[in-house]
Amino acid sequence: MIKKIHPITGIIGFLTMLTFWTSTAYSELFGTHASVASVKMMVLNHYRLALVGFWMCFSKY
User: Fold this and answer.
1) What is the pLDDT of residue 61?
2) Cα 42 from Cα 48, distance rounded (Å)
3) Residue ranges per domain, the chain?
4) Alpha-carbon gap, residue 15 to 30, rounded angstroms
5) Tens-place pLDDT, residues 41-55
6) In angstroms, what CA-CA distances link 46 with 19, 51, 59?
7) How many separate helices (H) and strands (E) can be counted in the chain?
8) Which of 11, 37, 47, 57 is the residue whose CA sits 20 to 30 A from 21?
């Protein structure tokens, strides 16, 4: 089971990081100051959400 899930979660993680990096780079190159701030806040919020989800999956409440 883990051998099947691990590659899938690796691909999802890679695509997530690629999306965040691409959106940050695009906003830095072509966006306004407001769009750069907006993208960076969205990245931070999603990072916090991922940490909470990770904690909930692997903690024993």
Assistant:
1) 56
2) 10
3) 2-58
4) 22
5) 887 777 777 777 777
6) 12, 9, 20
7) 2, 0
8) 57
Both tokens assigned to 9: 């979660």
Residue-wise pLDDT tens digits, 3-61: 888 888 888 888 888 888 898 899 999 989 998 888 888 877 777 777 777 777 777 65
Residue 24: CB partners within 8 Å, gap ≥ 6? 39, 40, 43
Q: How far is CA 20 from CA 40, 44, 46, 61, in A?
A: 9, 10, 10, 30
As a whole number of angstroms, the distance between CA 27 and CA 36 comes to: 5
